[in-house]
Design goal:
This protein is of the alpha+beta class and 252 residues long. The protein contains ten helices and seven strands. The strands form two sheets. It has a four-stranded mixed sheet. A three-stranded antiparallel sheet has the order 4-6-5. β1 and β2 form a beta hairpin. The mean pLDDT is 93.
Length: 252
């Protein structure tokens, strides 16, 4: 299981929010930002041989090929030296003009999250604790703070997994813990800000908790967002719920 940065042991690799690597309580400092990005790329596709030219295309797209090739070799050299000093010998393999990161002894938030999210199925009492651990691990999009364009595919994959996981968790937890269901719904809305479904769900949760004014505010904030960002109104179902809620709230 993933260990929080600060615990000793194997490499701890954080992919969500910002890509960072820890070893024995210490944040690893890479020689340059491009060396760090190369490691992030190789880690994302670990145990897979990546052609040299594909690495160049993704990490040095605007650079002249010969110079980019030299930069790639320099970065590979820095990575090998750094991880050799950390006790990881022969971490990068080269064959047929392809590089491969060979890494087994590590803990990673994204790896643990993926294992849980992609194998969880229906959420119930038997797996809710594991599901909550996965939700906690998702601290932000995959490498979102780093701005790596090549990471967009992974970003979308994990975003979809988190969306699916939250939806299933909410379906279960709303009958068990309204406060937690509302918290998960808020997380869902951050990931999918134009979701009529989750706004309706949040309004229902607030109503179930007797928080009618909060339910009204959820709708008003959502309507404002849609107007500002897309120039549209919420759908008729949401609007009808809001109108009935506002009317009953004023009468009470």
């Amino acid at each position: 299981m993933y260990k929080v940065p600060g615990e000793s042991g194997p490499l701890v690799i954080q992919c969500f929010h910002e890509f960072q690597v820890f070893k024995n309580n210490q944040l690893i400092s890479f020689k340059t930002a491009k060396v760090k990005e190369l490691f992030a790329y190789l880690f994302t596709y670990k145990n897979t041989y990546i052609h040299r030219d594909l690495l160049i295309e993704n990490l040095w797209p605007e650079q002249e090929y010969k110079k980019a090739k030299i930069n790639l070799h320099t970065c590979i050299s820095h990575l090998r030296k750094l991880f050799s000093q950390l006790g990881y010998e022969s971490i990068i393999s080269f064959s047929n003009q392809c590089y491969c990161l060979i890494l087994e002894d590590f803990d990673c938030d994204a790896s643990t999250f993926y294992q849980i999210a992609s194998n969880s199925g229906k959420v119930d009492n038997s797996n809710i604790k594991l599901i909550e651990e996965a939700i906690y691990l998702y601290s932000g999009g995959y490498c979102e703070m780093n701005g790596y364009k090549w990471a967009n595919e992974s970003y979308l994959e994990y975003h979809q997994l988190m969306t699916s996981l939250l939806r299933r968790a909410i379906d279960y937890i709303k009958d068990v813990d309204l406060t937690k269901a509302l918290s998960y719904s808020q997380q869902f809305l951050k990931l999918n800000p134009y979701s009529d479904e989750v706004v309706n769900q949040m309004m229902d949760l607030h109503i179930s908790m007797g928080n009618y004014s909060n339910a009204i505010k959820v709708f008003q904030d959502y309507r404002q967002l849609l107007n500002d960002e897309l120039g549209i109104e919420p759908n008729n179902i949401l609007t009808d719920v809001f109108d009935k809620l506002k009317l009953s709230h004023h009468r009470s």
